[in-house]
């Protein structure tokens, strides 16, 4: 599944990188915006996308039920981790190849493409067999060996922002992918570490608006990891779309209280359907409780 490689310093459009320009390939090119296709789903076009699914693929029923439910509510891509980056080695690590197979089966049952995380260079080939999009997790954003290999994979990449990464570092990681020949990169803001520990992370919404100005790549937001709290996912998603995000990626589980990872930040099927209802009427839902004061 690996591309033979492209001429160094050129991007997919055949443009040569200009020496001295720090991020020549990811930087904005006039009004041009890149649309990344995940199978038949465009990200970065005129419509915002919702990606949804469990943090981890746990079982056949769990992932198929979730795929059907999120598709029914309007999700266009299924997410699900088979290789999980866990802080403790004693926590659930994912089902590996078995998880990839189940994710693919669930995506096919619902008729939507699938995205899953790649943690190691060794797993790229097998993940490419089953997934439509490869996710680089926050912990691996600066794994340059992994990025170089993914630059040659024939699949789009979802590049999450590292929890302590600056915008420049995040875009530089994307530059590795484009420089190596993969133009199909979607950026994902998933919250950063700050002094405030009220929430799992701090959702950096201004960075989303900033990155939309700085790059032609699509940008989405992960309100689940950004907040760590189920009750805030809908509000954070609305806010993300309001600042110009091209979509959101949300964790959904049939029984969040029984999830093997990230249950506190996962919506159940009803919660997800309700959130989708709010997102479908964004202007009304953003202003439903308040109108702007008017000077008279
Ligand atoms: C995930 O998407 O489940 C995940 C581990 O995300 P992040 O890399 O943003 O922590
Ligand atoms: Mn998770």
Shape: globular
Question: In which range does the helix fraction lie?
Answer: 25-40%
Output the strand order for the largest sheet: 9-8-7-6-5-4-3-10
Proportion of strand residues: 5-15%
The Cα radius of gyration reads 18 Å
Task: Determine the number of helices (DSSP H or I, runs of at least 4 residues).
Answer: 10
Instruction: Round the mean pLDDT to the nearest integer and report it.
Output: 92
Name the ligand types: phosphoenolpyruvate, manganese (II) ion
How is this structure best described in words?
There is one protein chain. The chain contains 10 helices and 10 strands. 33% of the residues lie in helices and 13% in strands. Helix 1 (60-73) runs parallel beside helix 9 (269-280). It has helices spanning 60-73, 97-110, 124-130, 144-150, 167-179, 205-214, 223-227, 233-242, 269-280, 282-287; strands spanning 36-38, 41-43, 49-53, 77-79, 114-117, 133-136, 157-160, 185-189, 219-221, 247-251. Strand 4, helix 2 (97-110) and strand 5 form a beta-alpha-beta unit. The protein binds phosphoenolpyruvate (PEP) and manganese (II) ion (MN). The site of manganese (II) ion has 5 residues, from loops.
